[in-house]
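Record 1 of the preview.
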Amino acid sequence: MKPLLCAACAFIAAIGLSAAAIAAPKNETPLTFTARSGETVEAFDGAFMVPENYDDPDSRKLTLHYIRFPATTSKPGAPIVYLAGGPGGSGIWMAQNFRFPLFMALREFGDVIALDQRGTGASNDIEACTSSLPVDDMAPPSDEEFFAQQREALRECIGQWSAKGVDLKGYTTLQSVNDLEELRRHLGARKLSLWGISYGTHLALAALKEMNAHIDRVILASAEGLDQTIKYPARTDEYFGRLQAAIDTQDDAKARYPDIKEMMRRVHASLEGYPVTLSLPQRDGGSAQMLFTRRDMQRLASAMIADPNRFARQLIEIYAAIDEGDTAPLAAVVFRFYQPNSPITFEAMPVMMDIASGVSPARRALVEEQAKTALLGPFLNDTLYLLDAAPEYQLGDDFRKGPYSKRPVLLLTGTLDGRTYIESQKEAVAGLSKTQFVTVRNAGHNLFMVSPEVTETIKDFMRGENVDGREIVIDLPTF
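->
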């Protein structure tokens, strides 16, 4: 037998894996990967080239980056590719942070790939766009004017990006599916397993539709269907009903918050008639004034409802305080994100991906009708009022038709998910005949790390066990 001569081969030998178990692709470099926790693991830093627009033979090239964590078994299955949410999330960042233990656990079944999708993290070469539109926080526009400003700012940014040579038609979920196929070839794998959350499930569902023969198994959490980029406002209202039911299980909380929907309506009505002036401390030691409106409250709520044990609990406290005439808790949250008179800005990948996925005409009509009376109006759906700024970038109804597949799929659903709702998630996977449903009771949108049982359930699924109907129960926060 010839000696191990290359650095990668020596690295493989050092971590106790056979060269047969890992045939290192090109453009990979061994590294010691350090998680936020301080834990380290030997891994590979990899990259591969793709066209920005697969439909344009003269397209510029993008370099997509990933970290590959080698399998800990001598007989690895298909590489497991993590698909971050957002759109816009970084897979590499998530591996470094909250989900590092789950990345490590899944190495039992194959190489685990933390991929930075095109336009994200280390795979992003597009600068954020700051529009020239002036913003006066003490003279907020009407809703209609606000929507028009957002559309005008996006059109300006599209012009800026295009002038710099960016092909924005490359930032669609279908283009990212092509990237997954290129990654599969780059890795020399016959199939990939996909592991995604939120927008990552949207991409995984599109992959099942477009490259089904090259998919092994799929793990989904908090699923977003191909026609679900725009959420139903009525289902958001139903979520608040489930949140109330959770509150009602705690006597003190039930007494404090007997009807959160009615409380929210009171606060919105009060802010509509009498916006409040917030004085917000700034980093330079000064303060900034902001006239906080009903729309601001609905937008803030839309950003805070994903998880009951994080911001949703704090959001309810803010509503209760405003209802009692106290804006201090509100100001304490707003100042963390607010810069005075900040111009409208956009990141290319997140906004263009969502616009490309778009919404069917029938769904849009129903969403707009529901938004007229819904607690948060249209503001859970930022993309809804941007669509008309760039209709030429939408993929169309054929894209939004759900996939049909017999591949094994695991769907984990949180009962208190404030972003992707139980009924919607079931609809998203309706065409997948081998889906196993697992309910995580009292969990929200970001459910992977809420209990060790989630990790064990995923591992059981990867072993080929039947976990359909399993229920995992976690504690509620104290409201």
